[in-house]
Amino acid sequence: MGAGLAAINFIRHLPKEIELVWVLNEGYQKSNSYLAKGGVAVSFPGDVESHIEDTLVAGASACDEQLVREVIGASEQVFTSMKKSGILFDEEALQEGGHSQARIQHVSDQTGKFVIEHLWQEVLKRRNTRLLFNYCASDILCENNAFKGLQLSHRITGEQMLVYGSALVLATGGVGNLYSMNTNAITVNGSALGMAIRAGLKTKNLEFVQFHPTKLYSPYNSSQVLVTEAFRGAGAVLVSESGYAFMDDIHPLASLAPRDIVALGMFNQMKKDGVLHVYLDYSALSDDEFQTKFPYLFQQARRSTWHKNKRMPVAPAAHYLCGGLKVNANCKTSMLGVYAIGEVACTGLHGANRLASNSLLELFYFSEKLAKNISDDIQVIEEKDTILESLSPVSQLDLAKYEKQMQCIMWQNFGIVRTSSGMHAGLSKLQELEFQLCMLAEASIPYRRLFNSLQAAICIAKSAYNRKQSLGCHVVKQDNVCAL
Ligand SMILES: Cc1cc2nc3c(=O)[nH]c(=O)nc-3n(C[C@H](O)[C@H](O)[C@H](O)COP(=O)(O)OP(=O)(O)OC[C@H]3O[C@@H](n4cnc5c(N)ncnc54)[C@H](O)[C@@H]3O)c2cc1C
């Protein structure tokens, strides 16, 4: 399941004789992979130890060190394999926040788009593949904690069916759209994670939601433009309304400090100044350098009113789920026959906070590893579908109202800075919302989707509430309110 790079790279490497049913609810353009700007973190001999160290430091000692060594140690190999497939990476590696070296391999400033467009062509040629396009999954069928099949519905016609199989690979991404301010593609809403949670799969580290510090600010989340950390790596500096470089007081790496520290510094500065954004001052970059290194961002800047002052308004937004479905080093979840790769999985690489550009590395590494090993576990089963009564593809309810409520609760109570009382209140509100939705119970696809998303939100809220101390991107400000 999924149309992002985790799914696509898995399929590329899957042995040709394995029969595949590929469930895509939309095209690859609606994935976070397509939006990835910066690139892939890759270390060559001589730099491997410092890449490991940077990952462990960012992860706030909550990473699985053995697994970190396995993944980072293989990064050169991952890169070579991508280059062999014909992807033309730029010559010069970039540096991003939290990295002590310039090691981000990239294709211009739209790495995800170029890579996915390239690999998509390759997987479309695969035989033994049944493509279920426009289908979203709402339930996992299982027996005695073993996978049996999936309940799918066609998001335009409402056709509903059960599809049986011997293994399920979830490559369904993160949870950005559970938050009112986020950087994610519209389809990335935690619904598959919620579905898996309802089926009883174990999760890990869900409280660690990373906020990207620099989304181009627009009221009501109307812009989805992310300003890559590489832009700060090239010399842009975070400044307050009055032009003060406030990160200088906070961390030795200033604007290039790890993401959680930058997001927190911005949050505090915005609160202090009573404003909704700060600025990136890019006067140190010449127009030539800006245009050559960041052509996409340059296009956006040229159309704006702020470009003449070389100060871009930016604000933090929910970006990446460091936790997810608990998997072992072979991508196995807690349910027999169910695997998870990419952002939906928690492998232990990121710990309490992801180091920039380690996520594409992680998904390339594990999707290939799983594809090469999964045949050991697969048994032949008879292929059959069961057609169920159709669902309505549209809702008669005002679901947008409930979704907005959920997103606001998540943003306000489980956002960049959390308090015990805020999380307690937020969890109660989410549970109240769940109760209201249960009372409405509608046989429609949007309803099922929202209900699953809400399950993911509640699980994140519970994990956050249960972690009383700050760690990595889970920042708790103490207050005096008692426990549940
Ligand atoms: C703006 C942005 C920039 C980024 N830049 C970088 C970067 O430079 N380097 C880096 O390492 N990482 C970056 N990341 C993170 C990285 O892009 C993601 O972690 C990664 O692409 C996730 O890939 P994936 O295949 O796991 O999920 P995705 O690419 O998000 O794909 C998930 C797929 O699952 C589908 N899906 C979801 N729910 C369902 C359902 N219920 N039924 C059917 N299908 C479903 C979605 O439609 C989608 O096709 C960035 C993220 C964003 C948002």
Low-pLDDT residue spans: none
Query: What is the name of the CATH architecture of the largest domain?
Result: 3-Layer(bba) Sandwich
The fourth-level CATH homologous superfamily of the largest domain is FAD/NAD(P)-binding domain
Ligands (ions, cofactors included): flavin-adenine dinucleotide
How confident is the prediction overall: mean pLDDT? 94
Main sheet properties: 4 strands, antiparallel
Helix segment count?
15
Write down the CATH class of the largest domain.
Alpha Beta
Q: N-to-C terminal Cα separation, in Å?
A: 37 Å
Number of domains: 3
Strand content: 15-25%
Alpha carbon gyration radius: 22 Å
Q: Tell me the structural class.
A: alpha/beta
Helix content: 25-40%
Predict the CATH topology of the largest domain: FAD/NAD(P)-binding domain
Strand segment tally: 19
Principal-axes shape call: globular
Widest sheet, order of strands = 5-6-7-17
Describe this structure in words.
With 484 residues, this protein is of the alpha/beta class. It has three domains: 271 residues, 3-Layer(bba) Sandwich (FAD/NAD(P)-binding domain), CATH 3.50.50.60; 106 residues, Alpha-Beta Complex (Flavocytochrome C3, Chain A, domain 1); 79 residues, Fumarate reductase/succinate dehydrogenase flavoprotein-like, C-terminal domain (Methane Monooxygenase Hydroxylase, Chain G, domain 1, Up-down Bundle), CATH 1.20.58. The chain contains 15 helices and 19 strands. The strands form seven sheets. A four-stranded antiparallel β-sheet has the order 5-6-7-17. The chain has a four-stranded antiparallel β-sheet with strand order 10-13-12-11, with helices on one face. β5 and β6 form a beta hairpin. α7 crosses α15, α10 packs across α11 and α14 runs antiparallel to α15. The two termini are 37 Å apart. Flavin-adenine dinucleotide binds next to α1, α2, α6, β5 and α7.
